[in-house]
Each structure stands twice: as structure tokens, then as C-alpha cells.
Amino acid sequence: xxxxxxxxxxxxxxxxxxxxxxxxxxxxxxxxxxxxxxxxxxxxxxxxxxxxxxxxxxxxxxxxxxxxxxxxxxxxxxxxxxxxxxxxxxxxxxxxxxxxxxxxxxxxxxxxxxxxxxxxxxxxxxxxx
Length: 129
Hints:
By secondary structure, the chain is mainly α. The protein has one domain. The protein has 6 helices and no strands. Helix 1 runs antiparallel to helix 2. It is globular. The relative contact order is 0.18.
């Protein structure tokens, strides 16, 4: 059952990550940015992070170049944690960086163990990751 549970884990984590990116880019889904409040196009690093969240989440969710997309997503969350959250306080619970830490480690896990079953790469090209 492990490949199926890994696939479900991948889908849920990637869906939440993509939703976060969509919320930041388009002001939808009731995120913390609020309806209609979007990041200015090209604003560093927020806009680029949101694009990585949306695209990386979609790629991992669908299982397209999953390991590479997961590694890039993990790195972007590590950067977010250390550049945005870490300066505010030592612990993630104090600095609001829990989501960044969780996404970072979840995507790193996906990058190393693979996407499990149900990927478009597997369906379209006959490979598992």
C-alpha cells in the first residue's frame, strides 16, 4: 500500500501548495491576502515564490517531473523560511514559519522517495517518476 499512500500524500501536499500560490497571485480561495489583494507582478521575492508555489504544486500534483518540481519547491520554502521568518524569532511557532518548514520537508521527502503511483509521467511515458 505504500506507493498509494505516498501518492495520496503527494496529491494533498501539492494541492495545498498550489492553492497557496493561487491565493497569492490571484487573490482567490480566501487566503490571508484577502479577496482581490494580489502580489504585484515581478515583486521580489513574493511574486516569484507564488509562481513557484502554483507551478510547482501543479507539477507535483499531476506527477510531471515530480522529483525536480518537488526539489525546487522545497528549496523555495527553505529560502522563504530563512529569509522571511527566521529573522523574527528562533522557533517556527514564534515566527509564523510553520507552513514553510512543513512544505520544505514534505517536498524534500517527495523528491527523495518519489511520487508513488498515479502520475502523468507514468501514464504518458511509461515511467514511475
